[in-house]
Amino acid sequence: MANPDVLNNPDVLASGNTDLVEVYAEVSTANNDVVGDVFNLNGAVNPGNDVFAEPDVFSPDVSFGPWVKYEPGIYIGRYFRARLVLKSHDALTIAIALAFSFTVDVPDRVDTWAIVGGVGTSLNQVTVPSTGLVLVFASNGRTIPEPFNGGPNTDAVPLIQITNTSNQAFDFEVQSLTKNGCTIVPRLAGTPTNAPKTNVTIQGW
Q1: Which of 17, 68, 72, 158 is 20 to 30 A distant from 107 in Cα terms?
Q2: Which letter, b or e, does each residue of 35-70 get, where b requires 16 or more Cβ atoms within 10 Å of its Cβ?
Q3: What tens digit of pLDDT does each residue of 72-82 get?
Q4: Considering the entire predicted model, what is its pTM?
Q5: How far is CA 29 from CA 36, 80, 81, 144, in A?
Q6: What angle do CA 54, 57, 61 make, to 5 degrees?
Q7: Omega before residue 60 within 30° of 0, cis
Q8: Across the strands, what pairs with 182?
Q9: Is-cis flag, bond preceding 152, omega within 30?
Q10: Nearest alpha carbon to residue 39 among 61, 60, 63, 58
């Protein structure tokens, strides 16, 4: 035995050892790399900012932020790393982690905005013309095209949700849907008709 003084050891069976160990996770996110701000996805401004191009996330040139104790919530970043901290408060207790896994969940991208006719446009209460509303996808507030990577779950393209708050029973057809954009055509009783007071939401990632 490491401690031969059995009579003076209040926990000879080590049943309370877990009270002597502190375990918690820490996370760190990348703030920038050698080609600039990793949050700047504008290729015209930063054409070298590609996570798959050298230097990539595995390069020592990537600059991570400080380690912080993990707490439930949202962490914003492009590169993530994690580690497990094991602390023992007793000389006779050794903390050992046999397994540790770390996953990152990317929240859905939900746009109520797109580029229409070359101009960034809110898709709340818009009029969809009878000839069709051509949308080029871009994140809310952005003025350059930003294609989706895919749709919800395993869908290859984003999900388009359309509502109309007028007193007309419009039907909407989504045409030519890709990761880059689509065309929305409104119909009233089967006839293409301008549809005012229309809201469009685009969901994917």
Answers
A1: 68
A2: eeebeeeeeeeeeebeeeeeeeeeeeebebeeeeeb
A3: 887 877 778 89
A4: 0.61
A5: 15, 5, 6, 26
A6: 70
A7: no
A8: 135
A9: no
A10: 63
